[in-house]
């Protein structure tokens, strides 16, 4: 078979000039009146999507659920209790109650004391659920965009220590110097990457 046999060329997308190419020497009499118009050739390309081992089955995983508002607030009160005095905790409970109060109640004293407008919690919960439905239509999590924007992209702090706060280093006898430790971390990260992409 000859080396210059090009009968089976790969499918490509190219641009084709549909009018004369301009004369690039600054001569007005030989230049065309209009610039050439380039139009794409439509060539079918069947490229299967690349799915790494880590992303297999991603479409079957259910979306991150939004817990009921009362469950979230009960968990918040349970979490904040050890960190507050009795007086601070009672103020926090009043703020939570105002946050989920009936909007028709219109209790201005509660709003003034806690800073929350009655019914605001229910309104925010309804808006969050609407947002989650719009994300499901786009096949994304309701939290993904906010997490990326606010946990990673909105500041220039080190995400290793300020976002992934359970991340830590232990002394490793295999790497007694900083250079050896850096090399070990890079090699292990590359091993992990190889597991994900293969």
TrEMBL record:
Keywords for the protein's UniProt record, in alphabetical order: Acyltransferase, Transferase
GO cellular component, one term: mitochondrion
Pfam families (UniProt xref): Carn_acyltransf
A GO molecular-function annotation: carnitine O-acetyltransferase activity
Record domain Choline/carnitine acyltransferase: where: 64-196
Any coiled-coil regions, as ranges: none
Domain of life, per lineage: Eukaryota
GO terms of biological process kind: carnitine metabolic process
SUPFAM superfamilies the UniProt entry points to: CoA-dependent acyltransferases (SSF52777)
Entries under InterPro entries matching the protein: Carn_acyl_trans, CAT-like_dom_sf, Cho/carn_acyl_trans, Cho/carn_acyl_trans_2
Family that this chain belongs to: Belongs to the carnitine/choline acetyltransferase family.
PANTHER family from the UniProt entry: CARNITINE O-ACETYL-TRANSFERASE, ISOFORM A-RELATED, CARNITINE O-ACYLTRANSFERASE
Record protein name field: Carnitine O-acetyltransferase mitochondrial
Classification of source organism: Eukaryota, Fungi, Fungi incertae sedis, Mucoromycota, Mortierellomycotina
């Amino acid at each position: 078979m000859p080396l210059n046999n090009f009968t089976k060329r790969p499918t490509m997308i190219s641009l084709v000039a549909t009018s004369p190419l301009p004369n690039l020497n600054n001569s007005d009499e030989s230049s065309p009146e209009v610039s050439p118009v380039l139009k794409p050739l439509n060539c079918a390309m069947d490229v299967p999507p690349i799915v790494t081992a880590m992303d297999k089955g991603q479409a079957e995983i259910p979306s991150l659920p939004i817990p009921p508002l009362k469950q979230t607030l009960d968990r918040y009160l349970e979490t904040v209790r050890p960190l507050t005095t009795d007086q601070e905790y009672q103020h926090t409970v009043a703020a939570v109650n105002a946050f989920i109060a009936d909007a028709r109640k219109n209790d201005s004293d509660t709003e003034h004391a806690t800073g929350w407008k009655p019914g605001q919690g229910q309104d925010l919960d309804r808006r969050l659920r609407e947002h989650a439905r719009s994300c499901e239509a786009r096949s994304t999590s309701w939290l993904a965009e906010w997490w990326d924007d606010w946990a990673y992209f909105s500041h220039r702090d080190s995400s290793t220590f300020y976002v992934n706060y359970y991340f830590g280093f232990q002394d490793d006898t295999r790497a007694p110097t900083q250079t050896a430790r850096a090399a070990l971390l890079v090699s292990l990260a590359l091993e992990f990457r190889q597991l994900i992409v293969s």
